[in-house]
Amino acid sequence: MSEDQFRKHLRAYVERCQRAGIEFVPRPRTAAVENNETTPVTLFADQPPVTSATVEERRKALQLLADEVKSCTKCKELAATRTQTVFGVGPVDPDVCFIGEAPGADEDRQGEPFVGAAGQLLNRIIAACGMKREEVFICNILRCRPPGNRTPRADEAANCRPFLERTLELVRPRFIVCLGASAANYLLDSKLSIGKMRGKFYDYRGIPVLCTFHPAYLLRNNTPEPRRQVWEDMKLLLTRMGRPIPEVRRGPS
Ligand code: URA
């Protein structure tokens, strides 16, 4: 690529970022580690870096991002088959952000993540942890429903990744819970099975991440063991959060 072409691509990229409300890009991890720095690089001199943005500014930027997502057509098949995009729901600065795989038929119809059968079970898991759905943030690796609910492809996850990263930057959850292998693998760039990944904490840009089974898997595999394991994972989360573990007779069912 010539220098001119590179400049053109870079300019287009920066303009896309600006339209999405992106104010800074973090330094590449290695440079930050080498220089022992954690401060973000300011991309637009006239805007405050997101680290100093107020709650209101971040809420607004999140709305701008949701609008940008609505018009995204990077994944041609998904854009052609979706009813609507499904951005994410919940407050900024939550204790927990749950990340699923992709919207299903109910979510595609209603425009909100986890509103179908898996969502009902997720609500019970959240309640069993002593939290309310309204106090956590919920989103997916993909913002569009893959036809027939197939597993998201790597190129689709890569296309949607900037939206996920920006969402997490603006929402700033204290903890992240990945529901199922797609969320765990794509967020943490891993190829391990969810059975191997669950039960311990990982790091995403300084945020502790716990991985556990997807509620849809619990519904398909109606045996006590995976439910017990999800509850073990949630107890791990609550302990790390410093929250009490509510009495639950046999885990969320
Ligand atoms: N499954 C997911 O992974 N996400 C949803 O939003 C619904 C079902």
Task: Tell me about this structure.
The protein has 253 residues and is of the alpha/beta class. It has one domain (3-36, 53-241): Uracil-DNA Glycosylase, subunit E (3-Layer(aba) Sandwich). Helix content is 47%, strand content 11%. The chain has helices at residues 3-19, 29-35, 55-70, 76-81, 105-110, 117-128, 154-171, 180-188, 194-197, 215-220, 224-241, and strands at residues 24-25, 41-42, 96-100, 137-140, 175-179, 201-204, 207-212. A five-stranded mixed sheet has the order 4-3-5-7-6, sandwiched between helices. Strands 1-2 form a two-stranded antiparallel sheet. The radius of gyration is 19 Å and the shape is globular. 36% of the residues are buried. Residues 100-104, 107, 113-114, 116, 118-119, 140, 216 line the site of uracil.
Envelope shape? globular
**Helix/strand order, N-terminal first:** HEHEHHEHHEHEHHEEHH
Unreliable stretches (pLDDT < 50, length at least 5) are 23-48
CATH topology: Uracil-DNA Glycosylase, subunit E
Tally of individual helices: 11
Kindly provide the name of the CATH class.
Alpha Beta
Report the average pLDDT across residues.
Answer: 88
Structural class: alpha/beta
* Ligand identities: uracil
**What is the number of independent domains?**
1
Question: Helices and strands in order, then pairings?
Answer:
Layout: H1 3-19, E1 24-25, H2 29-35, E2 41-42, H3 55-70, H4 76-81, E3 96-100, H5 105-110, H6 117-128, E4 137-140, H7 154-171, E5 175-179, H8 180-188, H9 194-197, E6 201-204, E7 207-212, H10 215-220, H11 224-241
Parallel strand pairs: 3-4, 3-5, 5-7
Antiparallel strand pairs: 1-2, 6-7
Helix pairs in contact: 3-7
The structure holds uracil.
Residues 100-104, 107, 113-114, 116, 118-119, 140, 216 line the site of uracil.
